Amino acid sequence: xxxxxxxxxxxxxxLSLTSGAAFAAASDYIFEPVTTEMKKGDDVTVAVRLIHKxxxxxxxxxxxxxxxIDMAPDNMANMQSPVSPLPASEPGVYAFKTDLPMAGRYxxxxxxxxxxxxxxIIGKVIVKASK
Length: 131
Prior knowledge:
Layout: H1 4-17, E1 29-33, E2 37-39, E3 41-52, E4 57-58, E5 63-71, E6 76-81, E7 83-86, E8 93-100, E9 104-113, E10 121-130
Parallel strand pairs: 2-10
Antiparallel strand pairs: 1-3, 3-4, 3-8, 5-6, 5-9, 7-8, 9-10
């Protein structure tokens, strides 16, 4: 008869070798605005920071695969502007050039891929454009 103890020990050893990152999820990440308010106008820079919530550290080298900015928070989702990526100013910060033609609240929606994370990170950030 085969003892169950060696099998249980082998399973425990295998589980202990699995890194905590294997249990990470897209919900472990959040986008935060670098600045929440800016002046309305053309060629405005909107920057966000991608944070790994469990560690509180910024996530560098994510690949932003989708962006959209619109006035959904003010019930004008059809008021959208083009979004273009800008070079990073620091690790974990992702900046974009866009037009904020009128004062109000804008929602920047993002989708990103993070190395080692199988799920796509989805986030929405609200910024305010003032006169």
